[in-house]
Write a structure and sequence with these properties.
This protein is of the alpha+beta class. It contains 10 helices and 16 strands. Strands 8, 9, 10, 11, 12, 13, 14, 15 and 16 form a 9-stranded antiparallel β-sheet that branches. A 4-stranded antiparallel β-sheet has the order 4-7-5-6, sandwiched between helices. A 3-stranded parallel β-sheet has the order 2-1-3, with helices on both faces. A hairpin with a 2-residue loop joins strand 12 and strand 13. Helix 9 runs antiparallel to helix 10. It is globular and about 65 Å long. It starts with a strand and ends with a helix. Keywords: ATP-binding, Ligase, Nucleotide-binding, Purine biosynthesis. This is N5-carboxyaminoimidazole ribonucleotide synthase. InterPro entries: ATP-grasp, ATP-grasp_carboxylate-amine, ATP_grasp_subdomain_1, PreATP-grasp_dom_sf, PurK, PurK_C, Rudment_hybrid_motif. It is an enzyme of class 6 (ligase). Pfam families: ATP-grasp (PF02222), PurK_C (PF17769).
Length: about 350
């Protein structure tokens, strides 16, 4: 019997776990690695093994070095380039992909010049390490907001975008340079953290071509292979890129319930150079992130719900799972969401209502 193909994952969080899950039916052994584990272990890496990452940044450790220096570490140079918002935004400018106007905050940056250029609210973002809205700092002219000394050289400043809504697109590029995309996803963020997603929405279809052209240009420009996610602001009839993730992405989790080939399988197929066709959408879907909440098995009684529980310690603000609900008809969706509202705490009431208001399939 031939040996299974092996894909190592730098990192062992929920994305690595879901990649493993997706690899099983393809006979791909996906091996997430806890790079922080104190270890002098020599990983049994073979020459034809494939290496990917579930995060764009990682501390150097014996284990991370073994993975990141392997010749088949796919997209190796891309991670660092996108992990730093300065180089990420520079790339978008170079490729002429529309993004929120920005500049580097360095020792010479004058806060009044920022207010003059971008308006009375300016968002500073740490160059590295930010996620789920962490590493952000609003400068407000009305409050005489100043640039903290330890943000100089370490942050970019961005114009506050008065967007209509937030959307994202997940796409894939193969070794041959072919690209495929899922339909645009509508996302709701609360306090900088993704709460819910809805896809596909007929009303977003007119923006699909623009989204694909943007992400296609980026993946092409990076000679990228695998799945990439692009978060955008919709402003009127156009998109502005907010940020890029060189990996499977939370706003693509709905594809597990809604498509014949989810983003995890798509990523593995691309990495392993297996055939890929346009992913087919079987059902519209909604996804609810489970954040700092205990597992409730009543969720499993909903007729259209699929639970992904990450088995992490529950802490406030921490993503501990997600629920996918495929939408077979409007009545079933309404009944399931209404039921969830009665079971879930206060901070879920607005996101669940948002789903009902927006799930217009
Ligand atoms: P992620 O967890 O997705 O990596 P993040 O914390 O790294 O997120 P962003 O996605 O850049 O950072 O920002 C988080 C949220 O903050 C966005 O989804 C959006 O709601 C808001 N935001 C970001 N940039 C802007 C901006 N320029 N104007 C207005 N709102 C913004
Ligand atoms: Mg984001």
């Amino acid at each position: 019997m031939a040996n299974n193909k092996r894909v190592w994952v730098l990192g062992n969080g929920q994305l690595g776990a879901m990649l493993s899950h997706a690899g099983q039916p393809l006979a791909i052994d996906v091996l997430p690695v806890d790079i922080m584990a104190p270890s002098d272990e020599k990983l049994p890496l073979a020459d034809d093994d494939i290496i990917t990452a579930e995060r764009e940044q990682w501390p150097e450790s014996s284990l991370s070095l073994q993975l990141s220096t392997h010749k088949n570490f796919i997209n190796g140079p891309v991670f660092g380039r996108l992990a730093d918002r300065y180089t990420q935004k520079s790339l978008l400018d170079e490729l002429k992909v529309a993004t929120a106007p920005w500049e580097l905050v360095d020792n010479d940056t004058d806060v009044n010049a920022l207010y003059g250029k971008y308006g009375e609210r300016v968002l500073m973002k740490r160059r590295t390490g930010g996620y789920d809205g962490k590493g952000q700092h609003w400068l407000k002219q009305a409050e005489n907001g100043q640039i903290p000394a330890d943000w100089r050289g370490e942050a970019i400043a961005e114009q506050a975008i008065n967007f209509d809504e937030e959307v994202s697109v997940v796409g894939v590029r193969t070794h041959n340079g072919e690209c495929f995309f899922y339909p645009l996803t509508l996302n709701l963020h609360q306090d900088g953290i993704l709460m819910a997603s809805v896809s596909p929405l007929p009303r977003l279809a007119p923006l699909q071509a623009e989204a694909e052209a943007m992400l296609g240009t980026i993946m092409q420009g990076l000679d990228y292979v695998g799945v990439m996610a692009m978060e955008c602001f919709r402003v009127g009839d156009h998109l502005l890129v907010n940020e890029l993730a060189p990996r499977v992405h939370n706003s693509g989790h709905w594809t597990q319930a809604g498509t014949h080939m989810d983003q995890f399988q798509l990523h593995l197929r691309a990495l392993c150079d297996l055939p890929i066709q346009q992913p087919q959408v079987n059902f519209p879907c909604v996804m609810v992130n489970l954040i700092g909440i205990d597992k409730d098995d009543r969720w499993l009684s909903l007729p259209n719900a699929e639970l992904f529980w990450y088995a992490k310690e529950v802490r406030p603000g921490r993503k501990v799972g997600h629920l996918n609900l495929s939408v077979h008809n409007a009545a079933m969706l309404e009944s399931s969401i209404t039921q969830l509202k009665s079971w879930m705490p206060e901070q879920y009431q607005a996101p669940l209502q948002w789903i009902l208001d927006n799930a217009d399939f």
